[in-house]
Every structure is written in structure tokens, then in C-alpha cells.
Amino acid sequence: MRLNMKMKLVVAAAGGLLLSSVAQGAEVKVLASGAVKEAALELFPQFEQASGNKVVVTWAGTVDIKKKIAAGEVFDLIIVAGPEMDAFAKDGKIVAGSKVDLVKSSVGVAVKAGAPKPDLSSGDAVKKALLAAKSVGYSQGPSGVYMQGLFEKMGIAGEIKAKAKVTTPGVPVATLIRSGEAEIGFQQVSELIHEAGIDFLGPLPADIQNITVFSSGVHAQSKEQTAARTLQKFLTAPAAAPTIKKHGLERATKAASAS
Q1: Tens digits of residue pLDDT in 19-49
Q2: Are 58 and 32 in contact (CB under 8 A)?
Q3: Mean pLDDT, the chain, as a whole number?
Q4: 97-117: string of b/e by CB count within 10 Å (b at 16+)?
Q5: Is the dihedral of CA 81, 82, 83, 84 positive or negative?
Q6: How far is the C-alpha of 170 from the C-alpha of 127, rounded, in Å?
Q7: Beta-carbon neighbour count of residue 147 at 10 Å?
Q8: Percent of the chain scoring above 90 in pLDDT
Q9: Cα Rg for the chain, rounded, in angstroms?
Q10: Domains, the chain, ordered by start
């Protein structure tokens, strides 16, 4: 009788451990751009609660995301600008057909809190503000790459280069603006609107605006592909749209199906 009782206790304990393991669900390792950070910090816990899965995030700038993937680091889901995701797909770094567009992001402008606000009503006005500024800050990510191209298009690349302040990968441009290193700064709207110590002036005017689509892709070596695809579906669901908008982004209108 005692032996049978001990066996029942062992079986019960083993069953409880199994149920506990199942309840915890999968651990989804995400490598993501800072452009989606604020929205994701609100959405990921909702996903965890709804799915029983856990999300572990590594935040990085585009340059470092590319370095990590090139170095062979393994994640379950990658979130980065669309062109970089396309390159990952071409190189076989993500599962074929797993690219899903998540959000659209525009480039914004900011100055230090309390500083004079320049006219940004048109491309010509922005050009004048750039030439008048003593220093100009931007990142090495998609917004910074676009701004450098814009400086060339405006014919002021030489003048801007002499006073450019470029952040290291993953460091917000707001850091340069707060410290006074950059009199005016440019980055994704979603990376500026929540920052303290700066005044967000709004997006670039329509005639010089640039929209970046941030996409997700399932890493080719992921061991949690099903959970990663479930996260993609959660992030592209209509219910996520209000949170995405609140954080300075727009839901991508042509998201692929994460089947």
C-alpha cells in the first residue's frame, strides 16, 4: 500500500511538472529595431498573456542587427526595415515566405526642449533650417541614410557634413539633442515622440518625407517557428492598430499572411 501511494505521488508530481511546463509555453527570442520599441513594449506583454508564450527581446540598431545575423546569432523573429529583411531573405537568413510587413514609419524632427522652433512647413523651409543650424543630428539607421541622401539632393551635403553629429548604432538621436550636441535632429517619429528633454516638432513635410516599412521574418534556424508566426499574426491583427498609432507608427496596409 505504501509503495502504491509513493508511486501515485511520483506520478502526480510528474504530471504537475508537465502541466507547468506546458503552461509556460514557448520562449520567443526577438531581435528588433528600436523604431518599434515603444509599441512592442506594450504589445508583447499582451501577446504573452494571450498565448502563454514568453517574449525575450534584444533591441538593436539596424547596423548591429545586420552584424548579429551575419555573425550567426540565432533568434526566432527578426524585426527590421524592409530592405534589410529582403536582404536576409535573399541570403537565406529567414524562412522563405516568412516576411511580414508590420508598421510604416515616417521621419520626424526635434530640437532641445525650450529651444526656438524653426519653420518646417516645406522642403525649402527645412533646407533653410538645416543651413542655419550650428549642428545637425541623425542616426546610422534608415532615417539617417535617407537624410544623407536628402542633403545630397538639396545640394547641401558639404555644409551638413561639417557640422553633422551621428549617433552610434542603437543610441537615440534625442541623446544628442538633449545634450546640446545637435541643435536639430532627425529620426523615426516613433523614436522621438516619447523622449524627454526635447521638443518633437512633427514629421518632415510631405514634399520631402520618407516612409520606412518595418518588417518581421522568422529566422531560418529558429526552433520556435510556430510561436514566431503566432507573434507575427498578433502584431498585424486589427486590434494592435490603436497601440501602433499611439506610438507614432502606422499599421502596414499590405501585411503578408504568416501561415
Answers
A1: 333 335 899 999 999 999 999 999 999 999 9
A2: yes
A3: 90
A4: ebbbbbbbbbbbbbbbeeeee
A5: positive
A6: 27
A7: 25
A8: 86
A9: 22
A10: 25-103+213-251 (3.40.190.10), 105-208 (3.40.190.10)
